[in-house]
Automatic annotation (TrEMBL):
Keywords from the named record: Aminoacyl-tRNA synthetase, Ligase
Top-level taxon of origin: Bacteria
Pfam families, sorted: DUF6495
Protein name: Histidyl-tRNA synthetase
GO molecular function: aminoacyl-tRNA ligase activity
């Protein structure tokens, strides 16, 4: 498996798509029940293949990922040939994952305790795997509002 298996909830949400996936492989509902009961390793493989297909489709459309921890914010934009990262680091112990901490950051962007960094990095051989790695490390797929805001602010 290239990415990660979907959760039970995600499979339930994508039930129709999974049925269509099985149908493309000429697996009927009765055959699927038989596979699950008598060939669990084959069932596991089918779940993994479907999960990878779903992840591939999602990752192809991801343009922004953000990861926010108590004293740091990492914002990523996936350009055509590289990823652009903006990092905001606080050195005063304020927790920007709280409403009060985030409000403090917004009101004190030029404070000496706030540091802005940015970098560009080329993709590895697999652009989607690079995106997935950031998500696996706790990143969240977003529409890019924070990235756009901070990119305008510092550039």
């Amino acid at each position: 498996m290239k990415y990660a298996r979907l959760t039970k909830e995600q499979f339930e949400e994508l039930n129709k798509e999974f049925i269509n996936f099985l149908a493309t492989q000429s697996i009927t509902a009765d055959e699927w029940q038989d596979i699950k009961a008598n060939k669990p390793e084959v069932a596991e493989e089918e779940l993994d293949v479907f999960s990878d297909l779903v992840w591939e489709g999602v990752l192809k459309q991801v343009n922004y990922v953000e990861h926010i921890s108590p004293q740091q914010m990492h914002l990523f934009y996936f350009a055509e040939d590289h990823m652009h990262a903006i990092a905001i680091k606080l050195s005063n112990g304020i927790d920007i994952t709280t409403n009060a901490g985030y409000d403090w950051l917004r009101e004190n962007l030029m404070d000496d305790n706030v540091e802005f960094l940015q970098a560009k990095k080329d993709y590895s051989d697999d652009r989607n795997a690079d995106k997935f790695e950031l998500i696996k490390q706790g990143g969240t797929i977003t529409k890019g509002d924070l990235f756009t805001y901070f990119n305008k602010l510092i550039n």
